[in-house]
Design brief:
There is one protein chain. The chain is 45% helix and 15% strand. The protein is of the alpha/beta class and 469 residues long. The protein has three domains: 125 residues, Rossmann fold (3-Layer(aba) Sandwich), CATH 3.40.50.2300; 175 residues, P-loop containing nucleotide triphosphate hydrolases (Rossmann fold, 3-Layer(aba) Sandwich), CATH 3.40.50.300; 139 residues, Orthogonal Bundle (Helicase, Ruva Protein, domain 3). α1 links the parallel β1 and β2. The radius of gyration is 28 Å and the shape is globular. The two termini are 52 Å apart. The N terminus and C terminus are likely disordered.
């Protein structure tokens, strides 16, 4: 068993009415680095578990006083218990399988027990127990603080999001995360990864809206040397880089249709071939897709393959815009201020009630990302103590998304006619900012407080002919 040297050994309880069998198993398990205890039957096992909180239990099925199935029923009634491996003599296989399905045992083994098989099962059961403990810890954190991983929110809609994340994380299912720009789709993807059995593997994110089709295929699947002009060396794609981990396909609705067909094949058979390559390789990657678009519209316009849509839309998590969960703004402010204090070395403590009122009244077209930009500027200006209205950007709430802190807050004023819509104001602000940065999209996105991919999406929506950086 591979344990961190600084970590405590995993606790294992051996339950068997045959003394030689139980002592022999305990000795073998201890030699593998586990902390082992024994019990002669289900009654003694319950007594031992009261003082020895085992994480894994290996229990015989047929025992006097209380057998293995009754032991598991009691533990379930009490609210869980250790991850259980059921041991059965020949002829009880059907019963053992039934116990796994009905009582949630981890797995079963037939006697005589094979040491190698037991060791493998113990390692897997220990990992399962660790994941369950982490999920329980995060669930407690969620209940008390309205926090799951890096996501914050006590509102009913966010509680539903947390519940969906906790349900899907341990599985292998493809996840589709939808929501407006700035709502935290990548945070959700990272939290699903963190709570999954793949959390020790890599998390790789690729933006499907930021590159042409040929480069997209190379990015996803990799290429061999000489596969195309400029391919001077072999390169691994994102599927290879995410092996045993999670791959986030961000803005999946902007993936070229030609690439969608190749992606669908990978999702269906887990085989990848580099561009210019002859051999295929097997990949073990969990895919999460995200989009700020309505994929049903993309389907209707033939920009998204129908078969890929149904393959991706296995388990959907929709993130509500901030304007639909205004009750989360105080807790979001608290969490963001803690993070911004660490980033900038400030000592801001809270937000003035008048400012919170202003925040609740604003529609937040940039969602949580916009709130963070507003608070970042305020934290830097305040330095310590309470954020007041004087620390907010000039004319906060009167225009589009608020830019992050930086020089020239009062320069480059934008004049709008009375009656302009929010969409018209947003477009004017984006194009004016691009003019100010001399068409540097990266800098413009920073000033606007939006991601580069969002800026590209907006320009595509406007049909702007603005050139490259």
């Amino acid at each position: 068993m591979e344990n961190d040297k600084a970590a405590e050994p995993v606790r294992v309880l051996i339950v068997d009415d045959e003394e030689n069998q139980r002592l022999g198993l305990a000795s073998m398990v201890a030699a593998w680095g586990y902390q082992a205890e024994t019990a002669a039957d289900g009654v003694e096992a319950l007594e031992k578990l009261a003082v020895f909180p085992a994480q894994v239990m290996v229990t015989d099925l047929m025992m006097p006083r209380m057998d293995g199935s009754e032991l598991l029923r009691r533990l379930n009634a009490q609210g869980g218990g250790p991850t259980a491996i059921v041991v059965t003599a020949f002829g009880n296989l059907e019963t053992a399988v039934s116990i796994i399905h009905e009582l949630g045992a981890f797995w079963f083994m037939e006697k005589p027990i094979q040491a190698r098989a037991l060791r493998t099962l113990l390692e897997r059961a220990a990992k399962q127990s660790k994941l369950a403990e982490e999920a329980e810890r995060l669930q407690r954190q969620l209940s008390y603080q309205g926090v799951l991983g890096e996501i914050t929110g006590r509102s009913p809609v966010m509680q539903q999001v947390f519940s969906l994340v906790a349900q899907v994380a341990p599985s292998k299912a493809v996840v589709l995360v939808t929501g407006e720009s700035g709502t935290g789709k990548e945070l959700v993807a990272r939290t699903v990864h963190r709570l999954s059995p793949r959390r020790d593997g890599p998390f790789v994110a690729v933006n499907c809206a930021a590159m042409p089709e040929t480069l997209m295929e190379s990015e996803l699947f990799g290429h061999e040397k000489g596969a195309f002009t400029g391919a001077v060396e072999r390169r691994a794609g994102c599927f290879e880089l995410a092996q045993k981990g999670t791959l986030l396909l961000d803005e999946i609705g902007d993936m070229p249709v030609g690439t969608q067909a190749k992606l669908l094949r990978v999702l269906e058979d887990s085989h990848v071939r580099r561009l210019g390559g002859k051999a295929e390789m097997v990949v073990d990657v969990r895919v999460i897709a995200s989009t700020n678009q309505k994929l049903e519209d993309a389907l209707h316009k033939k920009r998204l393959r129908e078969d890929l849509y149904y393959r991706l839309n296995v388990f959907r998590i929709h993130l509500p815009p901030l304007r639909e969960r205004r009750e989360d703004i105080p807790s979001l402010c608290e969490a963001l201020i803690r993070d911004l204090n660490r980033k900038h070395g400030c000592r801001v403590t809270d937000v003035d009630l008048r400012v919170l009122g202003m925040f609740r009244d604003w529609t937040w077209p940039g969602n949580v990302r916009e709130l963070r930009n507003v608070l970042e500027r305020a934290v830097i200006i305040a330095g310590e103590g309470t954020i007041t209205a004087g620390h907010l950007p000039p004319h906060f709430g009167a225009g589009g998304p608020v830019p992050p802190p930086g020089p020239g807050d009062d320069a480059g004023a934008l004049t709008l006619r009375v009656g302009s819509t929010v969409g018209e104001a947003e477009k004017a602000l984006i194009l004016r900012t691009l003019g100010h940065t001399k068409n540097n999209k990266t800098r413009a996105a920073e000033i606007l407080g939006i991601s580069l991919k969002t800026l590209h999406n907006k320009l595509k929506e406007y049909g702007s002919a603005v050139g490259a950086d």
